[in-house]
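Review form for a predicted model. The reviewer records the input and the model, then writes brief findings.
Reviewer: anonymous (R2)
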Amino acid sequence: MRYRLTFVVGLALGYVLGTKAGRERYEQLKNSARQVSQNPAVRNTAESAAQQGRQFAGKAYHVVSDKVGDRVPDSVAQRVRSLRERNADGSGADDWGTSNT
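Model under review:
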């Protein structure tokens, strides 16, 4: 019984001390991440990477559609056509309200 009591007390003490140190460290990491994400150089780099990703995705789409375009079911092809027509105006908004900028 004594060992169990010692174990439970040690567990409780470790939990209390760990949560205090853990919360402070969590706050430090959160503040550091916020500072990095607000850095203009990081934001420009992220935007550049996103733009390149969209370009590569567009190229890949064309390559795939050329190779398997005639094998796609009509329902899928119609959905893709409707999405292209909807986005042809250049707005670039998707179903979630985000943009492609």
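Findings: Helices lie at 2-37, 40-68, 74-87.
Further findings: The longest helix spans residues 2-37.
Recommendation: see findings above.
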